[in-house]
Design brief:
The protein is an alpha+beta fold. It has 6 helices and 9 strands, in the order H-E-E-E-E-E-E-E-H-H-H-H-H-E-E. It binds a DNA duplex (16 and 16 nucleotides) through residues 1, 23, 37-41, 56, 73-78, 92, 116-119, 123, 126-128, 135-138, 181-186, 224-227.
DNA sequence: ATCGCCTCCTGCGCGC
DNA sequence: TGCGCGCAGGAGGCGA
């Protein structure tokens, strides 16, 4: 949800820094911080101040350089929350898991945290209280590269497979970042133009196509209410 | 603590 | 063309 009234605290406030934690964008100001999330369908655009609104523009930050920042989010799964305190201490942020591209011991940590986890390994790596950044596309892609069946209980994945999985997650995420994200359909970059390229996907959305390793048929299944794609022959 | 299930909401593509 | 249906990139919150 968008907390409109509280966000008015931003009036006359300087933006000191913008960074992120997991998939949350943190706009640090003098008096606190704006916490943004784009959900499934959100986008942020920077426009000239007099440009007309688009359908589903929900929040506008008016800057002092005749530009505006607008949050557009058709499905409204995103959020915009103001906090007076350090954003790291906010309840949406403080329980977030490991930043996969910022630690060198991800394998050891994911292994030890998984020993009592009976849930499917795909659910495990998508749990943002464990590790952040692995969304539904990248979960299937990472498990394919690591040759791990997405349904295997997390606690049954041995240390060497976790090591492969961690390598795959890092590779998939950094390639995706380099490519500018994954565009399935509508996507707008910050200047308002349709932008960016599809990254190379191996399994996501490839139901009934041939596996790129073994030509076996890619299967679609549902794990944790989410579409999941894998090759039964390569991943076990 | 952990887990599975439900929910929020709009839009699009498909089959009939 | 139009309608109804299923599905979609996230993740908080609930009860068991």
């Amino acid at each position: 949800p968008i907390e409109e009234n509280k966000i008015k605290n931003l009036i006359h406030s300087d933006i000191k820094k913008i960074d992120r934690r997991g998939k949350y964008i943190l706009v640090h100001c003098e008096e606190g911080a704006l916490i943004l999330h784009l959900g499934m369908s959100g986008s942020i655009g920077v426009f000239d101040e007099n440009i007309k609104y688009h359908k589903h523009d929900h929040l506008e930050l008016i800057l002092n350089n005749k530009k505006v920042i607008r949050l557009n989010d058709p499905r409204r799964f995103g959020c915009a929350v103001w906090t007076d305190k350090k954003p790291e201490e906010h309840k949406l942020i403080r329980n977030l898991g490991i930043e996969p591209l910022e630690v060198s011991d991800l394998g050891e940590r994911l292994y030890s945290l998984s020993r009592n986890r009976n849930t499917a390994v795909k659910n495990y790596i998508m749990n943002s209280n464990i590790v952040v950044g692995v969304g539904n596309i990248y979960a299937s892609e990472s498990l394919f590269l690591a040759k791990i069946n997405p349904n295997k209980p997390a606690k049954n994945v041995p240390i060497d497979e976790i090591a492969n999985l961690v390598k795959s997650i890092k590779k998939v995420l950094s390639n995706a970042i380099k490519a500018g994200g994954t565009t399935l359909k509508d996507f707008y970059s910050a200047d308002g133009n349709a932008g960016y390229f599809n990254i190379e996907l191996n399994v996501y959305g490839k139901e009934n196509e041939g596996c790129k390793n073994c030509q076996n048929i890619i299967e679609k299944t549902v794990i944790g209410q989410r579409a999941t794609y894998f090759c039964r022959k390569c991943q076990f």
